[in-house]
Specification:
- The structure is a single chain.
- This protein has 8 helices and 4 strands.
- The chain is α+β, with helices and mostly antiparallel strands.
- The longest helix is centred in the middle third of the chain and has 20 residues, at 91-110.
C-alpha cells in the first residue's frame, strides 16, 4: 500500500520546481499531487492535482490552488475521488455530468417565463404593428382585466387548457365576442412562448381545445 500524507504544511508553502525545471509534482500519496509551476512574475503557482489511470488512460483532475484549498481539504477531496474509483465511477466523467446538469438547470431557469412576462414581450414586439389606438387599448385592457389576474404569474411552460378555461368560463356565454378575442390573444401569446422555446409545441389555448371544454361559442353582440 502506498504511503499517504507525505507532505507537510511547510513543504506545501515553500514548494518550488527543482532547479532548471518549469514544473514539478510533489506526491502526497493516494493519487494526490501538489503541482508547482514557475509564474511569469518569477513567483510560483501551487495547485492540487488528483491523478489516476482508468482503462489505460491517465487523467489529471484539478482540485484547486493551494492558497485556497489547504492540505487537509485537498486530502479530503482526494479521498472522495478514490471512493468513486472504488465504486467503479470515473471521477472525470462524474465531474462532466455534474457540470452538464448544472448548465441544463441554469438554462431551464433562464427559460422560466411567466405568462405576464411573455405577454409583455409579445406586446413589445407586435404592438408596433397595431396602428389603430383602439385595437391597442382593447388588447391591453382585455389581458389586464381577464387573463393576467388568473394566469399572469404562471410559468408559460405549466399553462394547460384548464387554466385557459378558468380565464374564459365566466365570460364565454355572457360576452362571447370578447371571450373569443381573449381566447385568440392568449393563444398568440403562447405561440410566442412556443416559438421562443419556453414551452412545448402544444398550445392549450387552441380554439378546438377550448371549445371541447366550454362548448361552441354563441356569437352575438360582445364587448
Amino acid at each position: 500500500m502506498r504511503k499517504l500524507h507525505l507532505l507537510t504544511e511547510l513543504q506545501v508553502k515553500n514548494a518550488k520546481p527543482a532547479k532548471g525545471k518549469f514544473v514539478d509534482r510533489l506526491p502526497d500519496g493516494g493519487n494526490l499531487y501538489l503541482q508547482v509551476t514557475r509564474s511569469l512574475s518569477e513567483g510560483f503557482n501551487r495547485n492540487w492535482i488528483f491523478r489516476y489511470e482508468l482503462d489505460g488512460k491517465r487523467h489529471d483532475l484539478g482540485l484547486g490552488p493551494a492558497h485556497t484549498v489547504g492540505l487537509k481539504a485537498a486530502r479530503a477531496k482526494a479521498a472522495e475521488l478514490r471512493m468513486q474509483l472504488y465504486d467503479g465511477i470515473d471521477p472525470a466523467q462524474e465531474r462532466k455530468a455534474i457540470k452538464a446538469e448544472r448548465k441544463a438547470k441554469l438554462a431551464a431557469e433562464i427559460k422560466r417565463l411567466t405568462f405576464a412576462q411573455c405577454w409583455q414581450a409579445y406586446h413589445k414586439v407586435h404592438a408596433r404593428g397595431w396602428k389603430h389606438p383602439k385595437h391597442r387599448k382593447q388588447w391591453e385592457s382585455s389581458m389586464q382585466t381577464y387573463a393576467l389576474p388568473v394566469i399572469g404569474n404562471l410559468n408559460v411552460a405549466d399553462i394547460e387548457t384548464a387554466h385557459v378555461e378558468k380565464v374564459l368560463s365566466p365570460i364565454w356565454d355572457k360576452i362571447p365576442e370578447s371571450a373569443s378575442r381573449i381566447q385568440n390573444r392568449i393563444k398568440l401569446v403562447l405561440d410566442y412562448a412556443i416559438a421562443g422555446g419556453y414551452r412545448g409545441k402544444d398550445n392549450p389555448a387552441a380554439r378546438d381545445l377550448v371549445k371541447a371544454r366550454l362548448g361552441k361559442i354563441k356569437r352575438g353582440n360582445g364587448h
